[in-house]
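Database export, one record per block. Field names are fixed; values are copied verbatim from the stored entry.
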Amino acid sequence: MTLTTVIFYIFSAILIASALRVITAKNPVHAALSLVLSFFTGAVLWMLIEAEFLAISLVLVYVGAVMVLFLFVVMMLDINFEELRKGFWNYFPFAALVAIIMAVEMVMVLVAPDTGLVAYFEVTPLPDGVSNIKQLGVPIYTEYLLPFELAAVLLLVAMIAAVSLTLRRRKNTKYVNPSDQIKVKRNDRLRIVKMDAVVEQPQAPVTDEAADKPAA
C-alpha cells in the first residue's frame, strides 16, 4: 500500500464522518462547521488526482463564500427545530431506501475495473506545460457549452425564486418608491403663502425708578 493510498483512506474516513455529522448534529452551527470540514477533505481528495483548480474552487467558493453565508443565516434565524423534526420518522423509510440505493451505486462504481479505486490510483501525472484548467475549460466552452449555459440559467432562476419566496411586505416597514419620487413636482411639495409683514412695536425703555417701583 502506497502513501497515496493511505492518505486517500484517511481523508475518506474523515469525509464520511463529517458528512454523517452534518445530518445528525442537532445544532445547525455544528452541522455547518462539519460541512466545512467535508469540503476541505474533498478538496484534499481532488488534490490527489491533480485537480488543483477544482480543489481551490471548492475551498474559495464554497468554504469562503457559501458556508460563511450559511453560518450568518443560521445564526440570524430563529428556527424551531422541534417543529421541524416532528415528521422525521414518517419519511425515514423512504429516505433509508434512497440511501441504500445510492450506497449500492457508489460501491458498484468503486469496484468497477475502469473507474474504480484501481483506476483512481493509477492516474498518470500530467506532463510539463499542460494545465488542467485548460483541459477543463476547453470542453466546457466547446463540447458542453449548451449544458453549461442551461445550468447557469437554472441557477439564476433558482436565485430569483428564492428571493421572491422570502420577500414579504411588512406593514410597519417604511420604504421609498423611486418612481414616485421622480414624478413629484414643485407644487406638490412647496406652497408659497402671501401674508402681511409683521412689524414689532418698540418697547419703552425701563428706567431705574420704574424698576424700583413695587408692582400693584
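Remark 1: Residues 208 and 214 are 12 Å apart (CA to CA).
Remark 2: The first helix runs from residue 3 to 24.
End of record.
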